[in-house]
Specification:
The chain starts with a strand and ends with a helix. Strands 3-4-14-9-10-13 form a six-stranded mixed beta sheet, with helices on both faces. Strands 8-5-6-7-15 form a five-stranded parallel beta sheet, sandwiched between helices. Strands 1-2 form a two-stranded antiparallel sheet. The protein is about 45% helix and about 15% strand. The longest helix is centred in the N-terminal third of the chain and has 19 residues. By secondary structure, it is an alpha/beta fold. The protein has a domain of about 220 residues: 3-Layer(aba) Sandwich (Rossmann fold), CATH 3.40.50. Keywords: Amino-acid biosynthesis, Lyase, Pyridoxal phosphate. It holds the Pfam family THR4_C. Belongs to the threonine synthase family. Pathway: Amino-acid biosynthesis.
């Protein structure tokens, strides 16, 4: 399996090279040259397998330059620190299923991909006797999961940008209390989109990127998406519907499009999916895109679900490649229009094509609190604010879409104590690993919203 860029100027690179490159050198995103198919017979052969076995089966179809026994060891190592043998258990709440993706070290779905990616980096760098300097932006959970994925790893330094004061207290502590010498937390005066823009600008400076051997741990890295494809298959195999190969809906709280994109790939590979529902908060650019083809950037509103307080979805370009039937020039044109004009136009045929795969909902702050309260009263179960947006969407669409929903539960409610307390009048039970954070020392570097200032800081602390 080889990889290529959505913009057409990078082609036929190996999986290992794709992992280390992160963002393609032409500014595009790396995608597989072909999509492997999984038949119904293959799917059913995975039904009683462990998460690790399913992960190996799916990933092995995309990776041909890592020996199978090595890949198995990397997968086993990546998921040994989860607090359940199932890794991502499925809970049946009658009206819908809930896929708990928060059993990793930082209690967020990002752990599923970033524990694997951290081990992958260490393996490839050791094999090649290289160093890597990782640059990433976070709206909350990516940063802590990335840091926990690579902390203390040989040959790796990580620089994570987060918007100052715009992540939850727990998310901030999970990042800033990691004092390993290879970890640098940067609090930027601005929004997540500002942080993400800085990262993309740094990567677009190809000479700088190559000189300092920069790599990405954001969801622009293909290995992140690949890791997330797995849990769509594993979730489906845990449902009653899978006994008859019935289709099912997935509802995905997302701002950056990476999580739902993994579901899109799973569907294209043959998973029996009816609709992928994008659940947004009041920063609803993806909802506007799905419903009306309106992909225009507006101001970011602060909400109870800060990880989705985003306007520029970094993985959207990968979907555009498929929406445009592989037209590289059209992808380039649309991304240029987004940068210059702050919007992308879509015609009626393109919008119709979007509707074949996606539906979407948007949830207000008030609705978020109401859903947390409703699920608690009905099911004695507490969801975090991001998951609440998904549940809200499932309840809004249950009469429109007949098939049952799997809602992706993206974070442990203890990461969002304030919102939960407002919703139900009390805090959720706090895991011991969260309690410990409040007594730890912190280290963070506060910096202006300026690309050159960030580049200068990185240069001062980097490994060439």
């Amino acid at each position: 399996m080889k990889y290529k860029s959505t913009r057409g100027d990078v082609n036929s690179i190996t999986f290992k090279d794709a992992v280390l490159m992160g963002l393609a050198d032409d500014g595009g995103l790396l995608i597989p040259e072909e999509l492997p198919q999984i038949s119904n017979e293959e799917l059913m052969s995975l039904k009683d397998k462990s998460y690790q076995d399913v992960a190996f089966y799916i990933m092995n179809k995309y990776i041909d330059d890592i020996k199978e026994d090595v890949l198995k060891k990397l997968i086993d190592k990546s998921y040994k620190n989860f607090d359940t043998d199932k890794v991502v258990p499925l809970i049946d709440l009658d009206d819908f299923y809930l896929l708990e993706l928060f059993h990793g070290p930082t209690l967020a779905f990002k752990d599923v991909a970033l524990q694997f990616l951290g081990n992958l980096f260490e393996y490839i760098l050791s094999e090649r006797k290289q160093n890597l300097n990782i640059i990433g932006a976070t709206s909350g959970d990516t940063g802590s999961a990335a840091i926990y994925g690579v902390r203390g790893k040989k040959g790796v330094k990580i620089f994570i940008l987060h918007p100052k004061g715009r992540v939850s207290k727990i998310q901030e502590l999970q990042m800033t209390t990691v004092l390993d010498k290879n970890v640098f937390n940067i609090a930027v005066e601005g929004t997540f989109d500002d942080c993400q823009f800085i990262v993309k600008e740094i990567f677009s400076d190809v000479d700088f990127k190559k000189k300092y051997n920069l790599g990405s741990i954001n969801s622009i890295n293909w290995a992140r998406v690949l890791s997330q494809i797995v849990y769509y298959f594993y979730a489906y195999l845990q449902t009653k519907e899978s006994d008859n190969l019935d289709k099912i809906n997935f509802i995905v709280p997302t701002g950056n499009f990476g999580n739902v994109l993994a579901g899109f790939y799973a569907k294209k590979m043959g998973l029996p999916v009816n609709k992928l529902v994008i659940a947004t908060n009041e920063n609803n650019i993806l909802h506007r895109f799905v419903q009306k083809g309106d992909y225009s950037i507006k101001g970011v509103v602060k909400t109870y679900s800060p990880s989705m307080d985003i306007q520029i979805a970094s993985n959207f370009e990968r979907y555009l490649y498929y929406l445009y039937d592989g037209d590289h020039q059209k992808v380039k044109g649309s991304m240029a229009a987004l940068k210059n004009d702050k919007f992308i136009k879509f015609n009626d045929l393109e919008i119709e094509k979007v509707h074949q795969d996606f539906d979407s909902t948007t949830t207000t702050n008030e609705e978020t609190l109401n859903i947390i309260k409703t699920v608690y009263e009905r099911n004695n179960y507490i969801v975090d604010p991001h998951t609440a947006c998904g549940v809200d969407g499932a309840l809004k669409l249950k009469d429109k879409l007949d098939e049952k929903f799997i809602c992706l539960a993206t974070a442990h409610p203890a990461k969002f104590l304030d919102a939960v307390k407002v919703a139900i009048g009390k805090e959720p039970e706090i895991p011991e690993r969260i309690k410990e954070l409040f007594n730890k020392d912190k280290r963070v570097y506060e910096m202006p919203n300026d690309v050159n200032a960030i580049k200068s800081f990185i240069e001062q602390n980097i490994d060439e």
